[in-house]
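Notebook B, p. 112. Complex prediction, attempt 2.
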Amino acid sequence: MPGTFFGLEIARRGLNVHRKAMDITGHNIANASTPGYSRQEAVIEASTPWTLPDIATKMLPGQLGTGVLAEKVRRIRDYYLDVQYRQSASYEGYWEKKLDFADRVEALFPEPDGRGIQEVMLDFFNNWQDLNNNPQDSGVKTAVKESGDELAGIFRQMHGQLTTIGESIPDSMQDQVDKVNELLEKIADVSNTIIWVIRNNAQPNDLLDQRDSLLDELAGMGRIQVEAQDSGAITVKFIGDDDEATVLSTDENGKVTASSISVELDGDENYLLIDGEQKINLTEMANYQTGLPAGAGQGSILALESSRLEVQDIINRLDNLAAAVISNVNDKAGVTFFTGSGASDIALDTGILDNPDSIIGENALAVAQLRSTPVDIEEDVTATFESYYQSIVAQVGAAVDHYTNMLENQQAIGQQVDALKQSVSGVSVDEELTKVMQYQYGYQASARMLAMQDEMLDYLINRIR
Amino acid sequence: MLRVSNLLMANNTLKYIQNNLQRAARSQEQLSTGKTIIRPSDDPSEISHLMAVNATIKGNEQYMRNIEDGLSYLNQCDSALDTIGQYLQDAKTLTIQGANGTLTQEDREAIAEQIDKQIDALVDLGNSSLGGKYLFAGTKNSQPPFYRDPATGEVYYRGNTDRVTREVIFGYSYEVDAAGVTETGSPGVFGTLDGTSQIDDPMNSGEQMTRVSGGPFEVLLELKQNLENNDADGINQSLQELDDALQEVLNHRVGVGARTRHLEAVKSQLEDQEIKLKTVLVNVQGADIARLTVEAAQNDLVYQASLIFASKFLQTSLLNYLE
């Protein structure tokens, strides 16, 4: 048989639990707009029932309840959705950076309607046709000189602008690397606090949310593999699958340490260094010319490496074209018309610049016919200047189109996963308000119980004389 | 069933509004440029095709210019040949007159004098030019090609025997002149070059000029000598040669006419092609304004709906009904 004040204790527990649940609901509502927040819930359980057997208990059916307790606060989250979300974040980070640079490259090509290399080249060859019609005319020779100068100029300009884009990539890469290092430090700090809180038998729900958000952000820069334990210990592998790709680890004392990463150019190839040691060949992973590269979809650092190779490839193709223009025009013109060896340094010969009359009018037709004559432009590639340039433009356009589609697809997938995540962890204000009403009534009822007990005890203690 | 959270709703609404705006920007771009391909990525599979068509159109414009230029050259040649023919005809009339047995030596010398003037006139015709370029000088056409040596009365040539050509289709160059003189083979309008007889060029020191033989100059010169020598048989012989020379000029004129017709045919073909290519451009790149307008209207509707949703429904929650 329970004691006299047993009923008071049950009412007190009811009040406590409902107060606590109300506070948690308040916390949820306050964080309804916090990115990465997982809704929390009081784990409400009936407290251990009265079970001490004695002579009196035989008279009672079953056990006598002792009220309610809420000792834990649960974070509602699905770990598998996190894995999926991070995978999708790596893809998004990758295609976003690829598209970013492809867009910047495309912006340099004024085709199809603007005055780009093709247009200038056509004018150049048309001027040679005019010269063929008037082989001795100094005016036409000057026009040939001018359009030649413009052609050389536009080659140099394109080359310069592409080079500027190419040169900005290592800076971007360094930014990303710095961000990764910053994130790793933060994750290590948060993890150490988490481990300490768990050791003290508390649930670091908000800290776990914070760590998960940091990991989500990290996944955008490189594919990660996370192993988290209930103790709060964590191991994270960055880009690679092997142990050597480990960037965050927990030692046997439960201390989490972060490695620092860097990227270093070794010859032509970029390597990812972890704590100063060469670990992963980024160039090999990003080499898109071998079909879909191994590193596709693995975060922004690999995307930058891939963009670097791609911009280099376009610069090389432009160089090939310029070199072919230089050698073929000089050959057919019978004089040194252009000097230089590629798109970076193609220029009119000073002899032509100072004295356009030194252009040999009788060779004009041979030069003009170059326009439609396939020539060797790169190894095993024979094409007209126009069609070669068109293939460069098509390559640039196709890249933007491809990356836009990939990014859109990946964003759609990411949104789906996010919706699933939100479905599990997101705060619904209506839901929380409903709970508020429920807990409010629960609290009121417990209070009423307390008042009734008070009244009863008043009779028992004060009224009986 | 998916649990819906407020953050998800807010994020989605933002995203949908952004999507709608992007679509509106794209419609606006296409509607205001009238084109569906504005940058290479708009249709990478068509971009090379589009650029190739643009290049062909621009190339054809040059070919049209070449043809126009060639046609004016040919027309000028034709009228020069016409005049040459008339002069030779006149010379023939004079020759028939000179062949008349009743003429005296003096009469014949007077006719010879006229023939001599005809030679000068013919040299002037041989030096006909168009826009500063001499028609019968081959490609070395910045100086008058024919020169009559006052000492001997012979005509010398300083041009070359390359033909003036215009490229009218890729790889096909057409001659737009009539050969003034030739080195060997069938003679030009004014005959062939006699490499064995050269004099110093009075206009360009250090260069040589070559005598023109076998054409109207030589025939007329011989005729003149025959008239001066009162050689009746020679005069009749010259009459025959004059006919041959006249026939040769006619042959050249027929050639010029044929090439004129050919160039005109190519020209009209290029004009047709231009229309077709521009149609291709419109098909590939042109925006279907009617369809775009409907799409833009639809999109606008969706956009407005998403805005209404954002302004009305996002505000609604249980809070509105709690007291």
